[in-house]
């Protein structure tokens, strides 16, 4: 017996189109395509290849292991990794032409021992990693020392916005601009200065500097509820597809799935979809989301289970084997990943990145 369909269709034409839209939006700044976390669930290597073929300026990943996987695939685009444990394998990064972001004096010294190219990452208010404001002068001075001795090259200066409010972001932008002035006055000559991720890249021209790091917007998912990505010309890249596994007609009052959180109001037809929270379908969206079957949207009803969920199709002539689009491009009649995020009380980032390993990624040109 064939296994039920579980397929994430990755539309590389939409990805390339999104790159073109974003390039026009942020010009003259360069664009880094962020492919960390398996390209936000879309498949890191096919996405990285497509971005490279489209002429992306940089690729970005979280850590050195991800970077080495990109290099092992023969992809030579400039590449930055910015999140490191201890000890970090900066020597492997240097040997494979991978830039690394450093967030402390200790990381800077380790990068110098490895002969790496570095981006100094400053904490301007996000309070995660990054060089603390009180350490900035000392790190800059040590970076100048290392660079003049030929131990490393400071290729970039960077930070990350919180997106808490326009005022908070403006404060962070000012803090970053100030530390750039300090670093350059001390003798550093970085090739790129970068602060903006997807939201600021699109909405805040004064945060673009030389380079923007575009992640979720690249995949056609909104970086913030305030932003309508479709109106910008960005298209969803992932379409999560399945097929109807079973159909049954039930009378009014029929309880559905665990706990009977939904009972039918009238005689209706139920379609079973073989995807569940083990595949990344958010259980918190139970009873609040929709899918598309034959181009028509129907409500998901009852609790989403580990491997399956139920759709109420009313009196429609739905049959076993019919294609189900869980999320995809609303222009094609499907719900979006952002709609599922709203139903689950989360963000689109989580919806696409949590798609599980049973779902086959199929790259489509």
Write out key terms for the chains shown.
single chain, 365 residues, alpha/beta, TIM Barrel, Lyase, Ornithine Decarboxylase, Chain A, domain 1, 2 domains, 9-stranded mixed beta sheet, 8-stranded parallel beta sheet, 11 helices
Structure description:
With 365 residues, the chain is of the alpha/beta class. The strands form three sheets. It has a nine-stranded mixed sheet. α6 runs parallel beside α7. The chain has two domains: 208 residues, Alanine racemase (TIM Barrel), CATH 3.20.20; 127 residues, Lyase, Ornithine Decarboxylase, Chain A, domain 1 (Beta Barrel), CATH 2.40.37. The protein is elongated. It is built from eleven helices and 19 strands.
Give a short account of the largest sheet: 9 strands, mixed
Structural class: alpha/beta
Distance between the termini: 30 Å
- Beta fraction: 15-25%
Radius of gyration: 23 Å
Mean pLDDT: 96
What's the total number of strands? Answer: 19
Quickly count the helices.
Answer: 11
What is the fourth-level CATH superfamily of the largest domain? Alanine racemase
